[in-house]
Amino acid sequence: MINIQDVTVPTKGTGKYLNVTVLSFNLMPSNGISIYWSIHSENVVPDESEGAEEGATISRPGNMLLEGNLSMPQEAYDQWGTDDTYVTDWALTELGLTEVTE
């Protein structure tokens, strides 16, 4: 999942993660490809990894707050190449979201 700038979803919470999944992928996608996206909240849980300090916590994706589908047009698909981050960057742009890099 992609860590994103906070997105407030009224009555549901704050989204902090974006999941992007390609639903259909034809070898000759004349109508583009279908992409499923979902925005998730954040769960803060105890860090139980070996060597973690007592009381340390980690963040991980929580409940799904919002979801939908995008259709990547042929022109965008043609630019995909071999770097799959192209798809996540495209989805972030289409949804008006910003990735948080730490």
Task: Describe what this molecule looks like in 3D.
By secondary structure, the chain is of the alpha+beta class. The protein has one domain (2-92). It contains two helices and four strands, in the order E-E-E-E-H-H.
By DSSP (H or I, 4+ residues per run), the number of helices equals 2
Instruction: Give the SSE order as H and E letters.
Output: EEEEHH
Total number of beta strands: 4
Major sheet: order of its strands? 1-2-3-4
Structural class: alpha+beta
Radius of gyration: 16 Å
Distance between the termini: 14 Å
| Biggest sheet features | 4 strands, antiparallel
The quaternary structure here is single chain
Uncertain stretches: none
Beta-strand proportion: over 45%
Q: What portion of residues is helical? A: 10-25%
**Global mean pLDDT:** 90
Number of spatially distinct domains:
1
Shape: elongated
Task: Give the topology.
Blueprint: E1 2-9, E2 13-24, E3 33-46, E4 57-72, H1 74-78, H2 85-95
Antiparallel strand pairs: 1-2, 2-3, 3-4
Quick structural summary:
It is built from 2 helices and 4 strands. It is of the alpha+beta class and 102 residues long.
Q: Characteristics of this structure?
A:
single chain; 102 residues; alpha+beta; 4-stranded antiparallel sheet; 16% helix
